[in-house]
Amino acid sequence: MADAGTGPKPSSSVKLVLLGEAAVGKSSLVLRFVNNDFQENKEPTIGAAFLTQKCNLPTRTIKFEIWDTAGQERFASLAPMYYRNAQAALVVYDLTKPTSLIKAKHWVAELQRQASPGIVIALVGNKLDLTNGGSGSEGEDAGGDVENDARKVSTEEAKTYAEEEGLLFFETSAKTGYNVSEVFTAIANAIPETSLKTARGPGAAHAAARTEEQRVNLNGARDPNAKEGCAC
Amino acid sequence: MADEIAKEYDVIVLGTGLTECILSGVLSVKGKKVLHIDRNDHYGGEAASVNLETLYKKYGNYAKGTEPWKQYGRLNDWNIDLVPKFLMSSGELTNILVSTDVTRYLEFKQVAGSYVQQGAGPKATVAKVPSDAAEALKSPLMGIFEKRRMKSFIEWVGQFDPKDPATHKGLNMATCTMKEVYDKFGLEAGTKDFIGHAMALYQTDAYLETPGAAPEAIEHIRLYGNSVARYGKSPYIYPLYGLGELPQGFARLSAIYGGTYMLNTNVDEIVYEGDKAVGIKATMTGVEPEMKFETRAKMILGDPSYFPSKVKVVGHVLRAICILKHPLASTNDSDSAQLIIPQSQVGRKNDIYVAVVSSAHNVCPKGYWIAIVSTIAETSANHHLELAPGIERLGKIEEQFMGPPIPLYEPLEDGTKDNIFISKSYDASSHFESTTDDVRDIYRRLAGEELVVEGLREGIQIEGGEN
């Protein structure tokens, strides 16, 4: 399973999980990142199980394996498998909906409890296009009392919280694409080199390499020696 | 929140054991609208993997006020299976995992070795089960002449074709017994024992005398051989973090195809119209306030614990979960192993199984091994004596968890009358072949057709979500 990649740069897979209240734009953010696409009035997520996207950094390539909750968070029924070995998490709220930030804080606490200790968490306020500072312009000081501004969560409030908890923080618009790739690049940069190596990289320690040899890839081609019918 | 539950589903599934989760996943992929409920706060039901604290509390073997689990490292490093089984690497569960793509969520590792015991007590021999002719010739399980007979038997199994009488050694496969087949090769009793129990994986000797059962037994031996040949070493594979990952993986498959999941939810009542079940009344707990709801479904399926009046007890499993600080003796210090003690070697009617996994499978901290000894109960008392031949193999045991005999349930009816389709309990066998048989059986009963898993994902449009 040497994952050294074909290019000169080392490449590593990173499992990234999405969390956040329903309809905050989790899938839209990923769709924007992966396909540079946006669907108005997208239906709740069905079938988008597992998307992958590469992120090229100057010294290495990160391949994100992005896990969607598949709706299992709705009745608090996310399986431990979801958090297992996640190296990064995107916790999304809708900056026009204060309750979604409360929910986001709940997910951050849940991640701190259940996920691997070194997980990189990014707090993302989405739907910046609905604020008057949004749509690709500077969203920094969109204070909130201008007309047609749907913002209900101030940048300051979310940012302060993110700093307290040691989270990356971004405000984005999946609709316009504003700040979306920046989120993923920042996550890629924040993942410690060491955790990449022990995970799946080529420079795994000797002990890890030894256990690696017994791993099996069920999808892989069968051993050519394994005759169909009988191998006795 | 209650308004997010639909008024009607195609199927309501009760319990998140592996059987239920595979069926949920398959039915969702086929476009059925599934509501899947479990009364517990975790996935897996009887087939969950739990941490040490949960295990101590389940068995209650600690003094009040003490926390013995704290001396065993990080709690989250423990994933102890309640039902010990391995996957056959060419078995049906592997096929289902691959054809549904659930392999994406799981990582598997080989089980390092498959072993069998000959004899009993201190003089017993524990040796690797030979899987091909070359191994048979080196095996300490047989004398020099027997090795040659075994070699020719194994070679014959490889050439056997049920449709070609020329490969039948002059026997009538429709009527002959497996005993007659063994006798044709002149195999000794000890050899028959490890072939039948450690390769064909029969739990009793009933197969020996059943007329016409030889082709099935040969098929089992070939499955064993093919499974070994797939990755080498042993025919078994095991998911990292324990078997509890399997139901979670299939639940995720179901959810991805629109299945709705609710844990912490008690079924208060099954609603009937005439003889037919048409829905449930249920309460989701763990939320403030509790959420009561009612919904309808064309059919209900679930594990026996949700239908106590519709199942019967067909036997009891004895099981002891043991924590060790060393590998199983005579297994070449393997990080994992299966040891089968065939019934006749220790004067029993049912085999004793020992399944061993370790930190190599991320089920416990480094330096520990988890060994689970199990068999079918043959007496109504002294159950620890029934397991003793297996326990004796383990050496020093740090901690042992053994409860009362675990009842095995089967449904009384096939579900066509009341629209309720009930799974069987997980049996004492060492692999999942009987579980997938049950999945196929339930699917046939509720869908009226055979379950075809090959190509299940293909031809199903998932993008855009037309739900």
Automatic annotation (TrEMBL), chain A:
It comes from the Eukaryota. One of its GO terms (molecular function) is GTP binding. SUPFAM superfamilies: P-loop containing nucleoside triphosphate hydrolases (SSF52540). Keywords: Nucleotide-binding. InterPro entries: P-loop_NTPase (IPR027417), Small_GTP-bd (IPR005225), Small_GTPase (IPR001806). Signal peptide: none annotated. CDD domains: Rab5_related (cd01860). Pfam families: Ras. This is Ras family-domain-containing protein. The lineage of its organism: Eukaryota, Fungi, Dikarya, Ascomycota, Pezizomycotina.
Automatic annotation (TrEMBL), chain B:
Coiled coil: none annotated. It comes from the Eukaryota. GO terms for molecular function: Rab GDP-dissociation inhibitor activity. Pfam families: GDI. GO terms for cellular component: cytoplasm. InterPro entries: FAD/NAD-bd_sf (IPR036188), GDP_dissociation_inhibitor (IPR018203), RabGDI (IPR000806). GO terms for biological process: protein transport; small GTPase-mediated signal transduction; vesicle-mediated transport. Belongs to the Rab GDI family. This is Rab GDP dissociation inhibitor.
